[in-house]
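Lab notebook, bench 4. We co-purified these components, and the gel suggests they stay together. Before we commit to crystallization screens, I want a quick structural picture of the whole thing.
Request: model the full complex, all chains together.
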Amino acid sequence: MSSILRNPLRYQDFYVGAVMIAIAAAGLLDITYGNWRTGQTMGPQAFPQVAYIAIMMAGGLVAANACIGKHDARQEDMLSVLVTAVVMVSGGVLLFLLAGRLGFTVALALALVVGSSLLTREPLRHWKTTILLPIVAAVIMYVLFVQLIRIPLPGGLLF
Amino acid sequence: MLEALTDALLLALDPSVLMFVALGILLGITLGAIPGLSGDMAIALLLPTVFYLEPASALGLLVGIYKGGMFGGSISGITFGVPGTPGAAATTIDGYQAKLKGKPNRALHTALYSSVAGDSSSDLILIFIALPLAAVALKFGPVEFFALYAFSLLLISALTRGQLAKGVAACALGILLSMIGRDPIGGSLRMTFGIPELAGGLSLIPVLVGIFAVSELIVQVSKAWAAKSRAIVEDAKEKSKMFSDYDAAADKLPFRDFLKLWKATAIGTGTGTLIGALPGAGSSLAAFISYGLAQRFSRNGEEFGKGSMEGVASAEAGNSATSGSTLIPLFAFGIPGSATAALFGAAFILMGMTPGPNMVRDHSDVIYALFIILIYANLVNLLMGKVLLPYYSKMSMVQPRILLPIVFCLAIFGTYAAGNSLIDVWVLLGAGLLGVVLRLYGFPLAPLILGFIVGPGAERALRQSLLIGGEWSYLFSSPIAIGFYTTALGLILVFTLLLRNKA
Amino acid sequence: MLMQRKRLVAGLAAAAFGVAVGPIMASDTNGDSPLGDSPIRLLIPFGPGGGSDMTARVLTATAPEFCGPRIDVVSMSGAAGLEAVNHVMNAESDGHTLLVTDYGPIVTSGYVDDVEWSHDDWDPVMLFTEWLPTVYTRADHEIDSIEDWVEQLEAEPNSVTFAHAAPLGIVHLPLILFEMETGLENRHIPTSGGGETRSMVMGGHVDLGMTLPASIASEVEEGTLKALGTFADERADVLPDVPTFKEAGYDVSLPAWLMIFAKEDVPQETKEFLQDCFMEALATPTAESMSERTNAGIDPRGMEASADLYHNTVEMVGSILREIGEID
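Here is the predicted assembly.
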């Protein structure tokens, strides 16, 4: 036990396995008690059931492996990647919603300028690549998506 | 016959037709390289041109887009780790690793050559032995399809590095995701969590682009963010190192080096042609199966997943080899076996030809011209690829701080444009989050996509079989199915024995 | 910068293409049109390349001349077609966003799905055609006619396997209706669509299948497939030798129409204008030859006839779904 405590690396895969088992158990409970049209031998529940059982068994194996010292290395930058993920996904949602309010080109240019400025040291000094280029790119994408592909954006939009 | 052929040659080699083929390939490569957009979407968009263009020109344009798109998807896959089309997902696995090791040019050329090789062989098979192959394809009913899908699950191990248990779990998760929506047999809703928009299920493009591409972009952005806060001196040092490390000479791919990949390319071509001819199986499955088989039969199987050129060649040949054969059921029986085949079928109908065996007889001039276009379009594709590739492989050197936001926005709007679906955009972003979490905890992504592709087909085939046959033994009523099961068993036996001997 | 160059190349290529075909595709706008200049979008709740897509495209090619603005066909197959329906429902009521659909995504979905609209929120603008669901099999199958089929089922219930596309779709409900009328039972095998049904029938994996006439007409003529009967009041034009179930003595008719719908609150005069210009366009020789070529069998009807048909179908589908316990 003490060896596990000294080596927090092992903990991660142990918990990954535990979470897998928990998710699969929740899924199986949902199939048993939830609103599923079960009854036939090969009903809609059969495949999900097998998949949940596979996840549960794999979870058990992952956890067991962690206990005997076989585990994947922990990613060092885990927190920063997760924060980036949340920021980018919300940024994507925002961009798409804004494309409906502000118009496609404006929203896109804004997103590209903000995006490349955030990733550039001293963005104003590099204005050619942080401001000019994104705007040009937004215009080209406007031609591609709105003029040529004619994507129908939801709602009555200004482009 | 000879007269028809000369007529067709005149039609097909008309300069304006050539121009449309080249234009189509350029458009196809470019659109295919944008995540989410694919040749299919562009074909659908340009379908009305058949009203205005000469039949040969219109077909040249559509064929060009299709072929260009097939290869284009692998460009973004190799240069950014962001597959542009579903078919390129398997190419990305090794192609991107090769790029990270300073071999983008080699990987891109391998992809181009194997794509053209697979495509050309598949076209020849369409032209010369469509009928016998179509007869085999018709033998595939639910029982045979289930056997094929079950067999393809063997590939989990080929697509997993590290713990096999995590690969199995990823595949099971993919199957679960594919089950969301209306049950295809009974019609009841499942796992929609009360969201009516999920009734139609998740589509392949947003899931695939999200899992592979968006998650990759997120990881890269996080790296670029970290690089920004590092000291300038350190940064400059690293940058100069990156450029001095790049050895352009070592990154060349002499053609004789490509010839050494003949085995992987041949496996991909054979598998792709066969899978492509089966209605409903699809190019991404063909690419994954080719990749898995090539790994099994390679002498350097352990290199797969680490930038193996064999991996790139087999996956890309498998993907592209579906392009000719996917039209086989359409030509032989009028059955559209894939989205692409359905679009070509629509184009034929709009030109006043009914897809089916009579089409070749009744409209031999146009169809022979199409055959000729199919063949020479491959050469045009090769040529244009050769010309454009130097630019594309340099593109991977552009600073990520500029490129990443653009590619991310392209992925969002490309996915939206592919199905005109808002839900697809939310699914794309959700799948991106899921992909990041899976990456961080050491789960391989390719098995998830395999599960997502195989799940619905396998379920439908199994339940159809049981409805038709009434009992489980019906699953073993077909020689083809038994063949798949014994091959699977054989492969497992042989490889466990081999592994034991190695250890 | 290279990325930009690549985009530029794409843009130029696309622009070049636009210049090449643009003038032909976007015909001159008619200043007098009450619809103005912005394009009319015909949304289809299916993937591209199918029958509805191709029929709607006849209007893209012919109607701008009469209606004024450009006409685009937009395929939106997400959420089993509901996304297209909801998109039209949420669009402005100015007649620029219309729905082209068979009864599946609007009538059946209106009953079985959790939607925010009701059947009364839709008004048909016009009808393109009526598709007549047809039972078919391979040429060498022992079942030769409706009578053979019924006989075999009476001798041994559940002995015939019958492939159809998605459950409760336009090529499944007629079978359910037939079984309700006759008390016969088949083994229903749902498939992913017409292509899969067809390869299962031709490959001998199932006995019978159901489809729409245009897709099998030439094979029936050739003798590679045979059609048993049609669930309609009259025979299909492209299958003149195939009897209807009515002729065989079973009063089962459930044609699948293809209509253009507008939201109920689109002004009446806009709907009438659209009806008139679409009907005019479909009467042109170009439209007729396109319909001929694509086997679309376009036989347009105006909004009143369409409305009657629509409300009939709503009632009929409702009673079938109640009978089989799908809805209360």
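Chain B has a mean pLDDT of 87. Worth comparing against the SEC data before the next meeting. The two ends of chain B are 61 Å apart (CA to CA).
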